[in-house]
Amino acid sequence: MLRLGIAAFALGALAFAEGFTFTIGNPVASQNYAFKTAAFVFRTEGCAEPAKAQIGGSAEGIVRGARRSITLKVTPASKPGVYGIYQNWPAEGEWVVNLRGTCAGESAGAIVPLGPKGFIRESSKFFPRSATDAEIDASLKALSQGGNK
After folding, report:
1. What distance in Å separates the CA atoms of residue 88 and residue 15, rounded to the nearest whole number?
2. Is residue 8 scored above 50 in pLDDT?
3. Is 47 within the bounds of a domain?
4. How far is CA 136 from CA 22, 58, 114, in A?
5. Does residue 130 lie within any of the structural domains?
6. Helix (H, G, I), strand (E, B) or coil at 63
7. Which of 50, 71, 86, 140 has the fewest Cβ atoms within 10 Å of its own Cβ atom?
């Protein structure tokens, strides 16, 4: 019985240590028909009350050499903690999505590069805070140089 208690405590501590973060996926991963045309979906992890999380995002891009920023509408699913991102940025240029959120005093951020075939999971970056302007610029630079495609 003591071993079971220690194991349960260890698992709980491990889950707590992970903190608040995002996980990205294809729209089909949400199992929500309404998201079938989304650019991608994401869910929150490590948030005890996902319905209370504050989530926002922007599309950050370079179009014809000029930096652009477009506020995104983050669309919640019927399941708390699951969201869809729909493309409202131009097809022209290089773009990344900058996600940011808070839950119970913890912060999370992500930079999700976008290529011709959609989001690029392998080049996505996740943070225990909002991404900095320098991190967003570095991701855009790597994308424009073909490092994320």
Report:
1. 35
2. no
3. yes
4. 17, 11, 13
5. yes
6. strand
7. 71
Cα gap 9→132, rounded to integer Å? 35
Residue 14 predicted with pLDDT over 60:
no
Edge to edge, what strands does the sheet with 82-85 contain?
21-25, 40-45, 82-85, 74-76
What is the H or E stretch that residue 106 is in? strand 106-115
Our count of domains for the chain comes to 1
pTM, to two decimals: 0.83
CB 60 within 8 A of CB 76: no
pLDDT tens figures, 55-113 = 999 999 999 999 999 999 999 998 899 999 999 999 999 999 999 999 999 999 999 99
pLDDT value for 2: 35
